[in-house]
């Protein structure tokens, strides 16, 4: 799968001076260095003991010398024809970031137009954000000191909105430029209770850290971040319901969120789904009905 990933990058219309491929090996049992040499002698291979995704990406950031960065997981790959459209936006427009879609399909069709330019703040104010770090190509200089939080799950949910606030010129395409594999061992598919509890705990801490930062942002940026935090809080409450199926646990979570002024959810007209979920979770009866409906739906 790693070879397929690298080949998808080599297939792009970038010459050797325009690309830098950095493979960070986060403690694999068997080093793939020989396979990489066979693909291209210019690949930079960095090996580190298993330290997690955040540290691996941070290592890649520190190693990168190019003007733009694209994260690609080793078992995924870029969809060449659609990704070329993203490269053209970078080439011919003053873009800080190109945001695109991902798909589990192995093919896609380029889209004729891209929305933009808009600021990242403006985009977050009016849209629900897709936070996966491999769904955008961005200018390295906008990072400054921003890095992925170490030793946590859901690191993209924290990193991406903070990065988005730094974007002055954002272009958005509906083109599906990234293929992701659906894996049974991913954090969204693991079923053991300890892992579920860690996933929920880390997600809650991400919300708290974003809330702390939002309180010190200028007004426009705070409004944008507040929407993102409300979206994450809604998702978190939903995940607590579906993963634990425990009303007592849910009530403890809601109490903690309430102490941080995160619950009840803000009375905003973000989306129809948000309005409905907010209404249902505002009362104990509504929450009970919602949990029953979710159990029946899962069943």
TrEMBL record:
One MF term in the entry's GO annotations: hexosyltransferase activity
Keyword Transferase: yes
Keyword annotations from UniProtKB, A to Z: Transferase
Domain of life, per lineage: Bacteria
Boundaries of every Glycosyltransferase 2-like domain copy: 1-104
Pfam families cross-referenced by the UniProt entry: Glycos_transf_2
Protein name per UniProt: Glycosyltransferase, group 2 family
Organism: Prevotella multiformis DSM 16608
